[in-house]
Amino acid sequence: MEQHLPNPIVFYDGDCGFCNSSVQFVLNRRKKDVYFLPLQSNRAHDIMKEHGVTIEMNTMYLLNHGKLYQKSSAALRVNLFLRFLYPVFFYLGMVVPRFIRDGVYDQVAKRRHRIKSGFCALPTPEERRLFLDDLR
User: What is the mean pLDDT of residues 109-117?
Assistant: First the structure.
C-alpha cells in the first residue's frame, strides 16, 4: 500500500480538454494545495487497485485522507478546497440525491470531448509540484 500520499488528489483524464480545463480552474482558485494525477498513469492504476476500483476514463475521482470519492461526489467535494464562495456549492449540491447528481454528471461526462476539445496549459514551476504523474 502506498504511504505518504498528499491530500487531496484529483484523478482526471489527461487526454480530455474539458478535464484539463477543470484542472486549470482548480489551480487558479485553490486555497490550499490540491494534487493532480492523470488516470492514464501507472500510479493512478495502483492507487485505484488498492481501493478496489476499476478506472473509468469518464469519471473524476478524488482521494482525500484515504477516502475515495467518484463522479458528482468528487466534483462537489473539490469545491471545499477552493477560495471565495465555492465551498457553498458543495453544501448546496449535496442536498440533491446522488442518483440525480450522478445522472447529470454522466450526461456531461458523455459529452466532455465535444464541450471542450484539446487543451493543454503548461503549469508554472510552482504548480508543477502539484502534478504527481508516475513519480514514486
Answer: 79
Q: Over 60: is that where the pLDDT of 133 sits?
A: yes
DSSP states along the chain:
---S--S-EEEE-TT-HHHHHHHHHHHHHBSS--EEEETTSHHHHHHHHHTT----TT--EEEETTEEEEHHHHHHHHGGGBSTTHHHHHHHHTTS-HHHHHHHHHHHHHTHHHHS----PPPPHHHHTTB-TT--
Domain ranges of the chain: 9-122
What pTM value is reported for the model? 0.88
